[in-house]
Amino acid sequence: MERRTNGGMTIFESPTPLQWGALDVPLFGLAKDWNGKTLDAPAAFSLAKDAERLWFVASHQRAAMIHPKARPGRFCTELWKYDVAELWLGHPGSGRYFEFNLAPNGAWWTCEFTAPRVREEEVEIAMPEVATFSELAADGSWVAAMAVPLSLLQARLDFGPDTVANVSFVLESPNQRLLTATDLGGGEPDFHRPDRFGKVAFTPIV
Questions:
Q1: Which SUPFAM superfamilies match (predicted)?
Q2: Per-domain residue ranges of the chain
Q3: Which fold has domain 2-204?
């Protein structure tokens, strides 16, 4: 597992279709929370794409407290009130960005913003064709993945080399620890800082 450094966000490219149960992608580890305090067990994530989908993989070697209304594979609001992994994708030219929430059990949520915390739609809209997967171990550790159609991201964000991204975690609920892969500038915790997201860098899976 590689350690995350500030700067760009790596997206691994696969020449063949990626499949849950056969994912073999490098993981980046996040060992410190927003305040710089070390976690007993690092969280880990990976971003990868094949010809059709962008995959977001997240894991933590500790038991999670999951939103009581979260159901595997189902759309669920306010997942961030409990343990969750979050993917952020932005379009720097327009300032638009998406937030994707992935619960340890595969429940998910998404929202499009036109500016920091300004929603595109007031109503909740489940993005079609998003697929999620999860595995919860007997000791409580978990790994989950979300696969988002590239066609949707390209239509909404012009997804490509100019895209900016971040990954964040909310862990150890109810005494939440907040983690971010890119340096969002410190101060009071706030993940809605698209101007601080890292530019994506595509690299082949070795």
A1: CBD9-like
A2: 2-204
A3: Immunoglobulin-like (2.60.40)
Beta bridge pairs of residue 94: none
| CA–CA separation, 133 and 182 (whole Å) | 25
Asked if 197 and 181 touch (Cβ cutoff 8 Å), the reply is no
For residue range 18-50, list pLDDT tens digits in order.
999 999 999 999 999 999 999 999 999 999 999
One-letter amino acid identity for 108? W
pLDDT for 75-89, tens place per residue? 999 999 999 999 999
Residue 53's identity, in one-letter code, is R
Q: Look up the pTM and report it.
A: 0.95
Instruction: Extract the residue ranges of the chain whose pLDDT is less than 50.
Output: 1-6
The rounded distance, in Å, linking the Cα atoms of 206 and 203 is 9
Instruction: Determine the Cα–Cα distance for residues 99 and 74; give it in Å rounded to an integer.
Output: 16
The DSSP element (H or E) to which 157 belongs, if any, is helix 150-157
Q: In which element (H, E) is residue 149 found?
A: strand 142-149
Radius of gyration of the chain from its Cα atoms, rounded to whole angstroms: 16
Q: Which structure tokens are listed for 109?
A: 């949520």
Strands 84-91 and 96-102: antiparallel
Percentages (nearest 5) of helix, strand, coil residues in the chain: 5, 45, 50
User: Whole-angstrom Cα distance, residue 12 to residue 3?
Assistant: 15
CA distance 93 to 98: 14
